[in-house]
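As a next step, the fold was encoded as tokens, giving this record:
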Amino acid sequence: MTSMEKSNYVAGEWVGSGDLSENRNPSDLDDLVGLYARASAQQTHDAIAAAKSALPAWSAASPQSRAEILERVGVELLARREELGALLSREEGKIISEGIGEVTRAAQLFKFYAQEALRVEGLAIASIRPGVRVEVRNEPVGVVGLITPWNFPIAIPAWKIAPALAFGNTVVFKPADLTPACGWALAEILSRSGLPAGVFNLVMGRGSVVGDIIARSSDVNAVSFTGSEATGRGIRTLVAERGGKIQQEMGGKSPLVVLDDANLENAVDCAIGGSVISTGQRCTSNTRIIATPGIYDALVEGMAARARKLVVGNALDPASQIGPVVDERQLSVNLRYIGIADGEGARRLCGGDVLDRPQRGFYLSPAVYADCTNDMVHVREEIFGPVVSVLKAADYEEALAIANDSDLGLSSGICTTSLKHAEDFKTRSTSGMVFVNLPTAGVDYHVPFGGRKASSYGPREQGRAAREFFTTSKTAYTNPL
């Protein structure tokens, strides 16, 4: 095995395979990030068996020992955030400041759940029967399969792995086949953290092999998945049919309402900063901007002017403000939707062009469309690229109705100086997260994350809400005699 080859981690051992995937830098296709072993079906089954075998001892381990392990992981991530941030930018295409920021967030998540490991609470409740004691205990759900996406290749694994381990579960982790480097780097840190063999297992590879086995296995008690809606539906069916527990986050098409009384500069910041930044590759991106007539023209002009000035370039170049699209397939998807938008009669103000740069990569200028309607395909479907659509609404009520008229409901936002409209929007928005005078694409790690409608399924992620998925309750009755 060469130094470029990275193996899977099963039952406390690094195990290779004959099937290697090339991980290339989307900013520079001549840059090979590494070769990553795709797990075989047997290795995936071995990882599940190892997690099952390790579960009794780990679930009984002291909260202090679990806390210390998670804290060590968080400390190392913080110490190496520039190195790992550069790795993230090389494999996914986020600009370097965002790569470092994401690694920092992963560290914060591990440190947060290190403390949560010490706060596994229960209840003592008076019985309706004299002399009987009642307790409600929260216990580990068991072996958990974690399937994560390519767009946040270290933060999303962190916000699943850390609470899973904190609450005494064992883990089988499958990172996205497109971006395995950060998942492998995190696994390597965990392998040195003091975890007993089998508690944490890394199985890289295709969803059609590794993910399918995790979803089907009766030895996997719970599956947490973040990815596309179509893939999520298939996994949910498999897990539900065998009676497993399921948690899913599956994307969004988030609206941002801009009212006449909004601060224009802030509205432009929110509209552009929450949509095309990060190459639009965030499920929370506010890619539907709904503006009322008094601010519409100025907002559209400001958005286009801001988008034209954004520097699209190599993710490792500090001057870049937007990196490349993650791969050729996603670039093709983006261009297909740009063609659809053009054909639907939306007015393209700027962008949507493939760009040449000194290094071969997947560079696309951010596209701003005006005069859109909510029945247009490119407005209703998630593109996952640097494409933002602006719609006009007659007033607040129509803007709210358009915002809620979507099959997806992850996040939503409003720009206004009216407390009345801000409070009303927070109440009547049908999304799982609401933002006032902020982009919809920035969240905190210590509070619940999740959506409604087709965006999410099952308990919320992050914060203290994570215990609902990663634990199961037991009610115990005692007659002291």
The radius of gyration is 23 Å. Residues 96-116 form the longest helix (21 residues).
